[in-house]
Amino acid sequence: MAKRASIIGVGATKFGSVLETPELKDKTFQELVAEAAFEAMDDAGISPKEIDGFIVGNMLSHTSQIYSHATVLGDWLGLRFKGGFHFDTACSTTNTGIGIAWQMVVSGKYKNVLVVAGEILSSAPKAYNPLDREAIDATTLWGWTDFGVDHVYAYHHFYDVASAYGAFPTIGYMKKNHISFEDMDKAMCAVNKAVRTHSALNPKALLYEKGTLEEEAKREGFPSVEDYWKSPKNPFFAWPTRLLSALNTADGATAIIVTSEPEKYNQKMPIDVLGFDWAVSNYPWYGEDTLLPQDKKAFEGAYKMAGISGKDLNYLYVHDCMQIHQLTLSEVAGYIPEGQAWKYALDGKLLFSGEKPLNVSGGRHGAGHAFEASAGLETYEIVKQMRGEAGPKQIKPYPKIAAQHNHGYGMHSAVTVFRAGE
Amino acid sequence: MDTIAKNWYDYLAKGQIMGLKCKDCGAYTFPPLTVCRECSSRNVEWVKMSGQGQLIMFSKTILPAKKFADIEPVCYGLVKLKEGPCFFTKIEGFSVKNDDDIRKENEKLPVPVTAEIQHVKDLDIVVFRK
């Protein structure tokens, strides 16, 4: 049995579109995944020969056209004859993968495990030709994505992601904390301002080139961000949730290398995986309280394993496909006192420079959401922040203890706790 | 093991809204599963649901699910059933054309709603009406 499991390398492609984004254009799924994996290998100073296990995440086989991911990618990643398999917890996949890799290396069976995932959401091969892709419209994409939701009952009873995952948790948060719509709307604008401030500092983010929300408002001809926020350019996706509070889909891939022997490889700080937990419950069957009970359970389990509480965290990343979850989950995590996160957002405390930095790479709106690859970009940010490699969005002092939460549609909750190593 | 989903939809086709009641813990499971959703017991029985509930919240969407993309506008609501479980479905009796109306009506909730069976596309389903 090994004593520890540490992250020694991370990698990520630019998040964008294989149809348009210069860094991604014309790349296949295999090439995207290899690009992320090779960055992680180089970051760790490890060769494919030294990696003895790998696990691969990918949700939409409609666009990757792969079911047997590990066999296909073994060749493309230089990992032929290594132990590999495809695994899936939807949008929490690479977060879950860190826990799986922890078990693989702590058991002693494997020493170095690559957790890798890729997703293409912009387009699908035309007539099975991977080099000739056609764009997918949102309705088609969500038709496939909604296989993440119960299809015996829920889907056929007018399931809708915007109200179920955006509006209802927002209404629930407003009711519970006696927040008026006007105040909630201002808080959600503040959340999005932070999201865009962070993505404007992250070259890998989908919206990096579009700059901050303030810059976008000015480009659109509005005198202030608040005017832009309330304008017809930002309609209600599902009242009280506006369009800019929702995710933006992207193509991309991410990779993480977990080892039991961090001292053998690079000279960079290893990031120890202190604890993790997962919990599931079918959705959209909420209780009267629109918080999902599985989130609390996953946080509690991960904290117990790590021997910490939410108050020990210097940095938190929570799942924010709909940005309301930045507020609800940072409270469930015990990172921010209950009922206060909306005020923290208004006071700018969630920025990388603030008292409680949150989702500093730009989240699933600013960095973009490449379903099973996205959690890996969030881990990438945590590792870079702990090492002091986060550039202009560096949290100071560098975080020592961090946690990452993700939802897998719908709804798997995964929480992992990290500690800056020696 | 008997079929569950087919039985439930067959009951709906005959005009009956059914759920499960747990003989061990007394909780209701709606729609029915193979076990009690609260305590995991398989010691459950089919029971007729009251069809009564309270609408807790509702909204609209600008990205309807693929199956319902040609049916607009729809009011989506969360109903707390008299028997305990919450259920997400279409709500009749509210206009969602205007965001201000959605807001004003949400501020008046909860209100009583009653279940009805509608045939939508290929299935009989349960919706609620104010």
Give a structural overview.
The complex is a heterodimer of chains A (422) and B (130). Chain A has 422 residues and is an alpha+beta fold. Chain A has 14 helices and 13 strands. In chain A, the strands form 3 sheets. In chain A, strands 3-2-4-9-1-10-13-12-11 form a 9-stranded mixed β-sheet, sandwiched between helices. By secondary structure, chain B is mainly β. Chain B has 2 domains: 1-49, no CATH class; 50-130, Beta Barrel (OB fold (Dihydrolipoamide Acetyltransferase, E2P)), CATH 2.40.50. Helices cover 14% and strands 38% of the residues of chain B. In chain B, strand 5 (76-81) and strand 6 form a beta hairpin. In chain B, 34% of the residues are buried. Classes of the chains: A alpha+beta (422), B mainly beta (130). The A-B interface holds A 138-140, 142-143, 146, 152-164, 167-168, 171-172, 181, 235-241, 243, 284-288, 290 and B 5, 31, 56-69, 74, 76, 78, 80, 85-90, 99, 102-103, 106, 120-121, 123, 125-127.
**How many H/I helices of chain A?**
14
**How many DSSP helices of chain B?**
2
| SSE topology string of chain A | EHEHHEHEEEHHHHHEEEEHEHHHHEE
Going by helix content, strand content and strand pairing, the class of chain A is alpha+beta
How big a fraction of the residues of chain A is strand? 15-25%
What is the alpha-carbon Rg of chain B in Å? 16 Å
Largest interface, and how many residues on either side? A-B, 38 and 36 residues
Give the N-to-C terminal Cα separation of chain B.
Answer: 37 Å
The multimeric state of the shown protein is: heterodimer
Give me the secondary-structure category of chain B: mainly beta
Strand content of chain B: 35-45%
Query: How many distinct beta strands of chain A?
Result: 13
The CATH class name of one domain in chain A reads: Alpha Beta
In short:
Chain A is of the alpha+beta class and 422 residues long.
List keywords for this structure.
heterodimer; A: 422 residues; alpha+beta; Peroxisomal Thiolase, Chain A, domain 1; nine-stranded mixed sheet; two-stranded antiparallel ribbon; 14 helices; 13 strands; 35% helix; 19% strand; B: 130 residues; mainly beta; OB fold (Dihydrolipoamide Acetyltransferase, E2P); 2 domains; five-stranded mixed barrel; three-stranded antiparallel sheet; 14% helix; globular
